[in-house]
Amino acid sequence: MSTAENKALVRNLIEAWNNGDLGSMIGYWSPDMVHYSRGEVLDAGSVASAMQGVMDAFPDLKMNIEEMIAEDDKVVSMMTLSGTHTGTFLGVPPTGKPVSISLQGMVRIEDGKVVEHWGVADGLALLQQLGFIPEEFLAATA
Asked: Which of 7, 59, 75, 104 has the most CB atoms at less than 10 Å from its CB?
């Protein structure tokens, strides 16, 4: 696939997320897709389960692409995620608070499917916006 086709695939995957369509998102993944984050390696099933939990806690969560760069078989995206905490998250009942955080991701595409994904979300900012940690802790992490 060309870099333009790879970028289009990632845009379609993000559009599926923004439509709350986890099934369509999974359709863009290879069955043996792996996800790397914070030293962990997760399989597609584990990723789907975690994503469903986030969708349940933040049903209006949207990804806005700020920047996307593609080269060869990889696409890197810088995004902003925004939504409202209206479902249980990490065992915490809904706060009703709005959130907006940064997310960076990179995928490797093979034969029109995502085979590898690396992702980093600003989880500390998310926890601070939900009131789980004091704001001064966030300032210390610049």
From this structure: 75
3-state SS assignment for residue 106: strand
The pLDDT tens digits for 17-47 are 999 999 999 999 999 999 998 888 999 999 9
- Identify the pLDDT of residue 95: 95
**Lookup: tokens for 68:** 């996307």
Domains observed in the chain: 3-133 (3.10.450.50)
Beta-ladder partners of 75? 70, 107
Q: Which residues pair with 117 in a beta bridge?
A: 35, 107
Q: Does the model's pTM come out above 0.70?
A: yes
